[in-house]
Write the structure tokens for this entry.
Amino acid sequence: MDLGIKGRRAIVCAGSKGLGRGCAEALAEAGVEIVLNARGADALAATANDIEARFGVTVIPVAADITTPEGRAAVLDAAGDVDILVNNAGGPPPGVWSDWTREDFIKALDANMLAPIAMMQACLPGMMARGWGRVVNITSQSVRAPIAQLGLSNSARAGLTGFVAGTARQVAHAGVCINNLLPGLHATDRADALDGAVVRAEGITLDEARARRFANIPVGRYGTRAEFGAMCAFLCSTHAGFIVGQNILLDGGATNITI
């Protein structure tokens, strides 16, 4: 399918690895020029070079912490006018409610609520003026079904979801569509870290840890970054102009809900 976005320009945050990279690759395959952001300069440069070589599009790497004002300014300065924004940042660590301090919550809000809101506030006016734009926020399945040990993430991402619910409806008339993608477990560094923690805590093998998780995913496996990226690219396409303010689960059926 021709997504109709060849020649558009996108910012993809936290895009050197994992789900962000999957989104960048899918957009590049559709002919989109990418301003690619991540904190690690070496991994970012390698990913940018790989995407350019494979898909023949321009990829501008910007090594910066998107959760800081300085980092956002660097990305936005490099990007100029953009048509597509993919917001992404690593989630806060798991824990127990009684251990979290106000500072912990502020850090979570800065990374997973306030940073993506700031990026939207910076990019939306230009998109609206030009009459077209797409924003995809990568959040979490925990927005639909909160996970107890991820209380920091639950809180921050729920705030972002509420912001998007109102804002998406305020900008849709100008041809700008904002939606959220809610990943479950995918084959990324995050899944490796979670599985490794179980291995260390319980003295089981990695295969045993993964088999336990797979048992709770109806498709019986982790998702791939390519699958995730394909959905992101579709939401950024010309075919998604009637999809507004939605929270779309990509979790292999793990979240057992109907609405």
